[in-house]
Design a protein that fits this description.
The protein is built from 18 helices and 14 strands. The chain folds into two domains: 229 residues, Rossmann fold, CATH 3.40.50; 214 residues, Rossmann fold (3-Layer(aba) Sandwich), CATH 3.40.50.2000. The strands form two sheets. A seven-stranded mixed sheet has the order 1-3-2-4-5-6-7. The protein has a seven-stranded mixed sheet with strand order 8-11-10-9-12-13-14, with helices on both faces.
């Protein structure tokens, strides 16, 4: 287990970006946090410091808490290959995929062994009885009961879920249930995700959010975008590439139009389906598809990433030569988080259309990021994407994520109908400003932590 170094983020700068009512709400919440959390440390525990939306949120949210004078700290689990294989199977099953029989006594034993041998004692050595702990996702769930036994107030937060349970998701929640039973609070992104065994008075709904001042989301001039993409090797200029790129032809020129999907190399993100839908769409020859993901070496908690990337390359090789010349697979480096964030920012701002054709999605922060940047979006009507986009108002939703023809037609509409694209993009930006910036999540987290503090003092 290791601690992630955090730096303060300017709350006053965030407040300056908000409408007056949102700014006032955040200021009130911060005042409450300063009073009620004084003398306590708020600990967050998850599986990785890079390569996912949870890690990105923790960097910014905890930075704002620190600026407010709250002692916020972040621990990352140590886990071996067996542990991350088990937790990846839980992740997939929560989304309705996999073999329910996998969740047997042997899996429980391997899960507990990795958590307890490598992580439990370091936590017990650091966390005091007056402190508060928020454990994130299935990877950290097994630490809850031992921490509760030590008299510590502990909540568990799941950033994943499935709207309609099936055999796989029920088996996964049954696996997790015993570990989080007795939590002071259980947090989900959507009410639909909560299993039946979550008691109503312990259930908290906190949607994720993006930081408008983060490197990934801050304003970037078109010239800066072009330079960043050139350095990454993503446009046809003679600059050394910083990315691993699979391409059939020359990189897109600065004048070409781009369809961009940014996500992990994860089967649930359906990169092969994006390629197949792009191939079916009737698009001009100057439209290119870029499938963008973090390098698999930089995502420590996902043992399937390398295999998924290989599957995507095989699918890419099966495209016609003319389509393959306009499709690129990009693995962005993760050794410098800010550089990676700058590349994603530039790609999303440069995109003519942003896609998120996920088969399942906990929330989909890449959708909010693109909406904030006023990009027209075509996405699957799954999970938290439905909370962000109202079809035909903030973007285009495809009801069935496996309907390639519907995806292709939606893509054609956004590429060819510039008036529609501009209208949806403007509405998308407003939607994020009002609902999915970090002030909203900070207020809810303050409410959660203050409730936990009050209960522990009672």
């Amino acid at each position: 287990m290791r601690e992630v170094e955090l730096t303060p983020r300017s709350l006053s700068a965030l407040i300056s970006t908000l409408p007056p009512d949102q700014a006032a709400g955040l200021e009130t919440a911060i005042s409450q946090a300063q009073q009620l959390l004084d003398g306590r440390t708020v600990w967050n525990v998850n599986a990785t410091a890079t390569g996912g939306g949870v890690a990105e949120m923790l960097y910014t949210l905890l930075g704002y808490f620190i600026d407010a004078g709250v002692d916020a700290r972040w621990l990352v689990l140590d886990g071996d290959e067996e542990f991350f294989t088990i937790t990846k199977s839980i992740h997939n099953a929560v989304h309705g995929v996999g073999d329910p029989s996998e969740f047997n006594a042997s899996r429980h034993a391997g899960y507990r062994r990795a958590l307890y041998d490598n992580n439990l004692q370091p936590m017990l050595d650091q966390v005091r009885r007056q402190d508060l702990v928020l454990l994130h996702d299935p990877q950290a769930a097994g630490l809850l009961q031992p921490l509760k036994d030590a008299g510590i107030s502990v909540a568990w937060r799941s950033h994943i879920g499935r709207d309609v349970p099936n055999e796989q998701s029920t088996a996964a929640w049954d696996f997790i249930h015993g570990y989080v039973d007795g939590a002071d609070a259980i947090v989900f992104s959507r009410p639909q995700y909560a299993p039946d065994w979550v008691e109503e008075d312990h259930l908290w709904i906190i949607p994720p959010s993006i930081d408008p001042l983060a490197v990934k989301n801050r304003q970037m001039a078109s010239g800066s975008c072009q330079r960043v993409l050139a350095r990454a090797g993503l446009v046809s200029e003679e600059i050394t590439s910083q990315s691993t790129i699979v391409q059939g032809g020359p990189p897109p020129s600065p004048d070409d139009r781009l369809v961009v999907q940014v996500s992990r190399w994860d089967r649930l993100k359906d990169m092969p389906g994006v390629m197949a839908g792009f191939a079916r769409a009737d698009l001009p020859e100057d439209v290119h598809l870029l499938l963008v993901a973090p390098s698999v070496a930089g995502v420590s908690d996902d043992p399937e990433g390398e295999a998924v990337l290989a599957e995507c390359v095989a699918e890419w090789e099966g495209l016609s030569a003319s389509t393959r010349n306009r499709v690129s697979l990009l693995s962005l480096p993760m050794d410098d988080i800010e550089t990676n964030a700058m590349m994603v920012n530039a790609l999303q701002r440069r995109a003519t259309v942003v896609a998120q054709k996920s088969l399942a999605e906990g929330f989909g922060l890449t959708v909010a990021e693109a909406m904030w940047k006023s990009r027209p979006i075509v996405a699957s009507a799954v999970g938290g994407i439905q909370d962000q986009i109202t079809n035909e108002r903030d973007g285009l939703l495809v009801d069935d994520p496996e309907d390639l023809d519907a995806f292709a037609l939606a893509l054609q509409r956004l590429v060819t109908d510039q008036r529609l694209a501009r209208q949806l993009a403007r509405s998308a930006h407003r939607r994020v400003r009002e609902n999915f910036l970090d002030d909203r999540q900070l207020v809810r987290l303050v409410e959660l932590f203050c409730a936990m503090a009050a209960n522990s003092a009672a």
